Fold this protein.
Amino acid sequence: EDQVTQSPEALRLQEGESSSLNCSYTVSGLRGLFWYRQDPGKGPEFLFTLYSAGEEKEKERLKATLTKKESFLHITAPKPEDSATYLCAVQQAGTALIFGKGTTLSVSS
Amino acid sequence: GAVVSQHPSWVICKSGTSVKIECRSLDFQATTMFWYRQFPKQSLMLMATSNEGSKATYEQGVEKDKFLINHASLTLSTLTVTSAHPEDSSFYICSALPQETQYFGPGTRLLVL
């Protein structure tokens, strides 16, 4: 069964304390892996798309990497405004996305 | 990035009534839109794929007669929850696909009393 698993479920960091979120997947025919940020009561906001193993993308304090089995979202020196739920999703043939349950990040000052 | 809007953002209705939710792509045309449902502390679950000018494709377990989808133009898809019941209370989110990436609307919170 195709699956997307994110860990940890929740992560508490102090401001400036770098860490990584994990997304492991078991799907056949991966077309792309997506990272989204979701604030409470809002729709997901697009962050990154990764298409092949070894690919990396950066945006401000965030860096996403991809291997054949998992993706990491590295957060460097986080700030309180980085607090949100981070969702990972994979795309197979066609356009439907399979989402993980997300990692809820809390950054305190 | 592409902008997707939803209306209304909040709706409260009585059990047995029908509710219509609109999803619009504001700065691009979308032949395909998606409807998701999200329960508290759960991930997004795809309900259906909406295709402009043709019938929607529903995921297994989603009742097509209960969740009516109309994609009448390249910028508008609507989801109608018919004869809503308390168990239909959820956060409904649409997305649209300008190219390879899905962009999401802000969501609609539905509460059925």
